[in-house]
Amino acid sequence: MDCGLEFPYVVAVSAGACNGLSYMSHQRGRARFSNIEMLEKYRYIGLRYLLTQHSILNQKLLYRDFPERIVPFDYGACFANPARFEMVTTDCRTGQPCYLEERSDPERLVTLVKASSSLPFVCPITWVDGMPMLDGGIVDSIPVERAESRGFVRNVVVLTRNKGYRKKTKEMHIPTFIYKGYPRLREALARRCACYNDQLAMVERMEAEGRIVVIRPQRPVDVGRMERNIVKLRALYGEGYACARKVMSALLA
Q1: Where does 43-191 have alpha helices with state H?
Q2: How confident is the model at residue 183 (pLDDT cuts 50, 70, 90)?
Q3: Which residue among 16, 49, 183, 186 has the highest number of C-beta atoms inside a 10 angstrom radius?
């Protein structure tokens, strides 16, 4: 946004979907505020929400109070943006990714980003159009192939891990009493680490071939998925901005 760089298509997953919405509405700084300043003030991550909302996140605050009154989301600007914006979810019935978008209904838009960010095991299933959905990162954490399938061959990929990073691969056995009735979801969860590592290797190949530009941390990230240390989060935000500036000449070219 600072460089006036616009994309005709954006596809995002989980927390990336939340950040992507602020990019689509051109509300600069909104993503930082929600991830850092608002976390410091409201402490919306915690086990107490598992008791009250069956979620490790305060979903009422994140998906109702925040976009409606704390820092109102500019739905008009988002819907007027000519770019296409898809959010990735996982269909619990099939264990396959879904790529969903919304161009006019604020309530459904919030439901989509909530579904894309519904982490397995610690967040409840989100129902979208009558279909049970969870976090898109279960099956497609880095949807660059989706972008190419839509005809976009010059893509920018934003990663959350340094080059060479791989998850420790081990088969995860999901007991049948967890997500009972969704056997293909359990299969997808069992393959999750291997799927993510395959995508990381694919990104590195595409980058080496000059097919994509990648923005990624330059060193191992010392920030957890449910990080609550504000100092660490501010440092990571600053590093991310610096990484983007470093590759901006390549993007503009």
Answers
A1: 48-53, 59-60, 75-80, 106-116, 144-149, 183-190
A2: very high
A3: 16
Q: What is the pLDDT of residues 231-253, one digit of tens each?
A: 999 999 999 999 999 898 878 87
- Neighbour-count burial of 144, counting CB atoms closer than 10 A to its CB (0-12 exposed, 13-18 middle, 19+ buried): buried
Largest CA distance in the chain: 52
Please report, in angstroms and rounded to a whole number, the separation of the first and last CA atoms in the chain: 16
Main-chain dihedrals φ then ψ at residue 175, nearest 5 degrees = -55, 150
Residues 6+ apart with CB under 8 A from 219: 162
The SS3 call for residue 13 is strand
Task: Provide the β-strand partners of residue 116.
Answer: none
Q: Does 175 have pLDDT greater than 90? A: no
Tokens of 135: 């976090």
Neighbours of 232 (CB within 10 A): 15
Which pLDDT does position 253 carry in this prediction? 76
Q: What angle do CA 31, 35, 36 make, to 5 degrees?
A: 115
pTM greater than the 0.85 cutoff = yes
